[in-house]
């Protein structure tokens, strides 16, 4: 087995591409919701350098139409080999949803190796079993989490299929708005409604915070981020959002704290 990350190496970067839906489904957003879930897991690994897909959307998908087509399960995948060198990203996660499981591919562009695993998911355990299996699998691929990080990665994410769909759709609108200056208005009401309907979902509250932040609604964004942190105290995305809200509101002390 490849030894993966050594302590003397510079921290490698990892990124999760949108998880695609490869069959007709009225829940077309669930792939992006699982993409968001895995991104929120990987960011907790201190042996990896923090990397969010949202930072590199346009570098990977230069045209909006290419991203939309990819998310629908159409067209070909980006050239990960070339992009790995260009973007200095070693680990690339991709995959698709098939019924009640996610087929996840991990590509290591440094050693030019690919792993694939089918991971079942269930709403009954708040997606904890899915993440636990994911963490066990990537450890065999050379990416290991410390025990404390592993526990932080298993917060209860209380979203049914309808909730996953709502979060995924809102996330796509967020990417389009942020990366391509899409004329499509960010629908705050849609994700706000989802947050109210699923009040114990960290991901819904965290995304609501970022949508409001992008609309320069910093007070309400901060409220959403605080609610998200109350649901998941290890939520790196929400904590970053709180920091940026404080910066934008000239609350330097809060940003430092």
> What class do helices, strands and sheet pairing give?
alpha/beta
- Measured distance between first and last alpha carbons: 42 Å
Mean pLDDT: 89
Binned strand content: 5-15%
Number of strands: 5
Summarize the biggest pleated sheet: 5 strands, mixed
Helix content: 40-55%
Q: Are there runs of 5+ residues with pLDDT below 50, and where?
A: 1-8
Write the element-wise H/E pattern from the N-terminal end onward: EEHHHHEEEHHHHHHHH
Shape: globular
Number of distinct helices: 12
Radius of gyration: 17 Å
Structure summarized in a few sentences:
With 257 residues, the chain is of the alpha/beta class. Helices cover 51% and strands 11% of the residues. Strands 1, 2, 3, 4 and 5 form a five-stranded mixed beta sheet that branches.
């Amino acid at each position: 087995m490849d030894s993966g990350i050594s302590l003397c190496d510079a921290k490698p970067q990892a990124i999760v591409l949108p998880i695609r839906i490869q069959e007709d489904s009225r829940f077309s957003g669930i792939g992006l919701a699982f993409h968001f879930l895995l991104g929120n897991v990987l960011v907790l690994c201190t042996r990896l350098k923090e990397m969010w897909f949202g930072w590199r959307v346009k570098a990977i998908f230069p045209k909006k139409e290419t991203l939309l087509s990819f998310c629908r399960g159409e067209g070909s995948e980006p050239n990960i080999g070339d992009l790995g060198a260009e973007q200095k990203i070693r680990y690339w996660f991709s995959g698709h949803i098939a019924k009640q499981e996610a087929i996840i591919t991990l590509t290591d562009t440094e050693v030019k190796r690919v792993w694939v695993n089918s991971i079942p998911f269930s709403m009954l355990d708040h997606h904890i079993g899915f993440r636990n299996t994911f963490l066990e699998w990537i450890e065999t691929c050379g990416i290991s989490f410390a025990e404390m990080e592993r526990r932080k990665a298993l917060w209860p994410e209380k979203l049914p299929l309808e909730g996953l769909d709502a979060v995924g759709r809102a996330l796509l609108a967020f990417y389009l708005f942020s990366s391509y200056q899409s004329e499509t208005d960010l629908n705050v009401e849609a994700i706000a409604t989802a947050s109210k309907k699923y009040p114990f979902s960290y991901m819904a509250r965290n995304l609501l915070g970022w949508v409001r932040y992008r609309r320069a609604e910093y007070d309400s964004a901060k409220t959403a981020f605080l609610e998200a942190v109350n649901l998941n105290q290890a939520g790196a995305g929400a904590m970053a959002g709180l920091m940026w809200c404080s910066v934008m509101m000239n609350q330097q002390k809060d940003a430092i704290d």
